[in-house]
Design goal:
- It is a single chain.
- With 178 residues, the chain is mainly α.
- Helix content is 47%, strand content 0%.
- The protein starts with 9 loop residues before the first helix and ends in a 41-residue tail after the last helix.
Length: 178
Amino acid sequence: MAGFSYDKPIALWIMYILWPLICAVVYIVSQLVLVFRTLEDRWPIGDIVFGTAFFAIAQVLLFAFSVTICDAIKHYIDGLFFFTLCMLLSVMMVYKYWDSITKEDLEFSVGSKAAVWEVKDPLLANAGTPDYPEEDTASNYHGGPAASLVGGVSGQQLYAPQAQKGGYRGYPPSDGRY
């Protein structure tokens, strides 16, 4: 194959040098446009600049100084170690940038906020809402009304104490009906 020859590895050069460079430039430009056009805060630009600097330093360390580093440290490590370290810092800056432009603080909401992902959808509302006719929310299974998709508030609609023989809202099925 022409692109994979030993003399001129053009396909490998495109895959390992040119394509990551194009992707990085497109990402950086698109994020700068996003910050300048839609955000009022300009602090995320610093995250983009630091991430870009770490990415550029990583490329220079790998392709320009790898042999020099390897010879200076007596072949214990080479430029690939520092390249990986700088790429890690670059990816961490992408995360820091994302964290700075989002409003929800989902990182620290494990125990402090009870309903971070609360569903506010009228389709999950009670069956008696006037917006939805009965045939949209009722079930014909065993002739009973439909159970809530999520069990209602704390599961009380679907798993309430058995007020009648055979269950509540169709669960569990009553005797002789299944």
